[in-house]
Amino acid sequence: MSLDSHIESVLWTHDQISDRVAQLAAQISTDFDSDSAPPPVVVGVATGAFLFLADLVRKIQLPVSVDFVRVESYGSGTESNGAPVISVNLKLDVKDKHVILVEDIVDTGITVSCLIPYLESKGASSVSVCTFLDKPSRRKVQVELLGKGKFYRGFQCPDYFVVGYGMDFAELYRNLPYIGVLKPEYYK
Ligand code: 5GP
């Protein structure tokens, strides 16, 4: 049975994703273009942001460095357990650097709201968030950026549990090149 047959509906196609990622990268390239500031550090939240980050950085027209953090907050279900733990730390030094935190989706806001103080504690001069999807209707914690940080989002997502383009259900479906909603029988 093919992977596509597990999907009930497609919310954003591969082409729509590519167009939007190019727009975000162009905006970031403009906003962070500076002769005086050190190159920004793009920090992806593993694993969900891996495809978005890979596409985004290849379209940013500036020198950037790239690192990942890992945060454990989801089991194999569809709801956050509300207590994120940073399980893989930064390797790069972000002191006095502008950090662009790259997320697959901001849902309750708990994960990014745990990472921003962490990056502040490492001396980042600003923290921006670039999330591919945003579900503002589900927010439990307002996202407080650091310094002159900005909030970028690809698309506002309706209140569905979505998979694809890096996002999983029970560690599957990350390799779908589009964003979709799973058929209910596959949540079981
Ligand atoms: P938050 O801490 O903002 O509630 O959630 C952030 C994380 O929850 C995301 O990085 C993602 O891993 C997971 N998440 C939230 N909503 C969804 C969704 O609709 N689909 C998937 N696959 N993961 C989600």
TrEMBL record:
Compartments where located: Cytoplasm
Keywords in alphabetical order: Cytoplasm, Glycosyltransferase, Magnesium, Metal-binding, Nucleotide-binding, Purine salvage, Transferase
Phosphoribosyltransferase domain: residues covered: 15-169
One term under GO cellular component: cytosol
Cofactor needs: Mg(2+)
Gene Ontology molecular function: hypoxanthine phosphoribosyltransferase activity; magnesium ion binding; nucleotide binding
Parts forming coiled coils: none
Pfam families to which the protein is assigned, alphabetical: Pribosyltran (PF00156)
Stored CDD domains: PRTases_typeI
The reaction(s) this protein catalyses: IMP + diphosphate = hypoxanthine + 5-phospho-alpha-D-ribose 1-diphosphate
GO BP term, example: IMP salvage
Enzyme Commission identifier(s): 2.4.2.8
Pathway listed: Purine metabolism; IMP biosynthesis via salvage pathway; IMP from hypoxanthine: step 1/1
Nucleotide-binding in keyword set: yes
Family from the record: Belongs to the purine/pyrimidine phosphoribosyltransferase family.
Annotated protein name in UniProt: Hypoxanthine phosphoribosyltransferase
Originating species: Acer saccharum
